Every structure is written in C-alpha cells, then in structure tokens.
Amino acid sequence: MLEELDSLEKAFRERLGTAGSAAALEQLRVEFLGRKGKLAEIMKRLAGVSPAERPGVGKRANEIKQWLETAVRERAAALAGAPSEARSTFDPTLPGVRPRLGRRHVIQSAIEEMVDIFQRLGFDVAYGPEVEDSWHNFEALNIPADHPAADPNNSFFIDDTTILRTQTSPVQVRVMEKQPPPIRVVVPGRTYRPDTVDASHSFMFHQLEGLMVDEGVTFAHLKAVLQIFVREYFSPETRIRLRPHFFPFTEPSAELDIACSICSGSGCPACGQKGWMEVMGCGMVDPNVFQSVGIDPEKYTGFAFGFGIERPAMLKHAIHDLRLFFENDVRFLAQF
Ligand code: 2U9
User: Fold this and answer.
1) Which ligand 1 atom is nearest residue 209's CA?
2) Rounded distance from Cα 178 to ligand 1 centre (Å)
3) To test the ligand 1 pocket, which listed residue (279, 280, 309, 315) has its Cβ within 8 A of the most ligand atoms?
C-alpha cells in the first residue's frame, strides 16, 4: 500500500503541471482528493492492513493528503494571478494614471538659454572634466604657483596635482590643445571653491566662459559679443560698461557691469546705490596662455570672458538667495 501511495503522489505531480486552468485543476482535485477519489479509495482499504503496518501507512496517507491539498491551493493562486486571467479584468476604457512629470532645473534652463544666444553668434559648446590637473587649471592659464588662486586652501584638492576645477577655463585650454584656430567656443559647467555657504556663495556653482581665437580678433569684437549677449539675456535696452581690471589669463582685462536691472541706473538698494551691477570678467587672451598651448601669439589674438550662472539667473528671476537653487525644494523649483 505504501507503493500505491507513492505512485499516486507521482501521478498527481505529473498531472498538476499540465492543469492549465481553474476548471482543469478542479477536475484533478476531485479525481484525487474527492470523496470517491483515488486517495479515499486507498484509505478505505486501510482497515485491512495488519495492525503492525497500519500506523505507518496511515501516517504516510495523511502526509500525502496534506501535500495534495497545499499543492492544489498554491496552483489555484498561481492561476488566479496569471496574465491570461489578469487580462480579462483590465478595462482599457478607464482613465489612465497620469505620471508626475519633472522639469529642467532653473540653472539648467539658464545655461540652455545663454548657450543658445552664443550658438546663434557662431560659438560651439565644449565640456570637460570636473576633476582636473593643476596644469590645466592654473599653470596653462598663466596663474603662477604663488598666486592666491593656486593656494591649496582655495581649492578642493585630491592630491598634490589633482583638484576639482575652480573655473571652467581648463576646458578652453583643452580645446586649444586639440584644435587649431579659428576657435569660437563657450563652456558651461560646475566649478568648485571652498567658500562658506551664504545667500551669495556656494562651494559649488556654475560658470559659463567663452573664447574666440583667430587672426585679427580685437577688444571691439569682445565688446560687441558681450553687448549682444546682455541685450538678449536681460533686455534690449540694457546698457553696459567696462571697467579696467586684472586677470592673470587676459591682458588687458576688464569687468563688465550692466545698468541695474531694478532701477535702470538711478541707484537703489539692489545695486547698493551704484546704478550698476557687476556681471562678468573678460579680456584679451594673454600671450603666455597661447604659448603654453602652442598657438603663435604673433599670428593669433583672442578674447575670453567668464561669469557665474547663478547671479544673472537670480537677477532675471528676482531670486534673493543662492541657496534656494541647491536645496531641492520642489515648491521653489516648480516655479520655473
Ligand atoms: C582661457 C583664457 C582666458 C576667462 C575669463 C574671467 C575673465 C572672469 C570670473 C567671473 C566671476 C569667474 O564666476 S567667476 O568667479 N571670470 O572674470 N574669466 S576672463 O578667461 C580665459 C579662459 C580661458 C584659455
């Protein structure tokens, strides 16, 4: 009888795998577990088994009964969740669940808007590494090792010669290494300086820098390009002024102010009563920079400019605190 029980279990196993619907499974259940089923038939004959063997056979029969019942239950559950059944409960006429759409970050939108203006003026866009070697970040840009900008306290360093870039200028150096003039390129991207965070400073901020190199490029070209940029980005009436300044990588150098976008130049708290707001630095590429990338400074001249993205974006959108850009508060970000 133990053998009969074993072969019953085996037969059930084989049939279970092929029971592909709830109806087929029910048929199988009746055939094996029903009142007149195969198992019941064997159990009926239990009384005829010798008293010595009876407990063993009874125990085995019970085990098989329990196993069959569990297997039928599990198979029924699997069939209920199967795709063929699920399809029948799907109603394609019900309205869908609308996914929550994200949007561009306001800084990314500003970058795209600015880059678009320069692209229309014929500039290409270039990107480069944020982890930079100090040669591309400092030496090639005529920033000597004893310049305050090159002080290890003024950058995040990885080792003696590897830092997080403090400006996007190393990318223009890489462009000049790879490509002969004429060059017209703008470079947007993240930059890093160990500044204490406040309403107008952050250890990470974005810059956009530009470079044009060709024969006969002059300061007049620089002024025209920046004038057009400012009128496009802020408003067509925006006036600019250039003040002499010093940068190691440009000579001569200047800072560019725009007439205050709040008071149009008459003086207000936003511009500290000056009527002007400083927005960027610029100048003619220093011959030493050309020399370090193997461009002949006797043949070519060039202009360069650079500015932080956050400040013009704050002016344009009347944002008073730079930290808002980076706190990831959706209530703020969803407004742009
Ligand atoms: C090369 C040659 C020259 C890029 C320039 C500035 C002036 C400048 C600062 C403004 C505020 C950076 O965000 S900020 O701190 N930048 O004033 N940047 S000229 O000059 C270059 C760049 C690359 C090869």
Assistant:
1) 4
2) 20
3) 280
pTM for the model stands at 0.74
Residue 305 near ligand 1, beta carbon < 6 Å = yes
Going from the Cα of 190 to the center of ligand 1, the distance in angstroms, rounded, reads 14
Domain of 252, CATH number, reads: 3.30.930.10
What is the rounded distance in angstroms from the CA atom of residue 244 to the CA atom of residue 246? Answer: 7
| Sign, Cα dihedral of 128, 134, 138, 140 | negative
Torsion sign, CA atoms 110, 178, 166, 290: negative
Q: Counting beta carbons within 10 angstroms of the beta carbon of residue 164, is it exposed (0 to 12), middle (13 to 18) or buried (19 or more)?
A: buried
Residue range(s) defining the domain that contains residue 200 = 106-333
Q: Give 245 Cα–ligand 1 centroid separation in angstroms.
A: 12
Domain shared by 249 and 155, yes or no:
yes
Q: Do 67 and 111 belong together in one domain? A: no
Place of tokens 């003026």: 121
CA of 113 to the centre of ligand 1 (A): 20
- Domain check: are 84 and 110 in the same one? no
pLDDT tens, N- to C-terminus, the chain (336 residues): 778 888 878 888 888 878 888 888 888 888 888 988 887 888 888 788 888 888 888 888 888 889 878 888 888 887 777 655 555 678 889 998 899 889 999 999 999 999 999 999 999 999 999 999 999 999 999 998 888 888 888 999 999 899 999 999 999 999 999 999 999 999 999 999 999 999 999 999 999 999 999 999 999 999 999 999 999 999 999 999 999 999 999 999 999 999 987 888 888 888 889 999 999 999 999 999 999 999 999 999 999 999 999 999 998 899 999 999 999 999 999 999
Same domain, 84 and 122: no
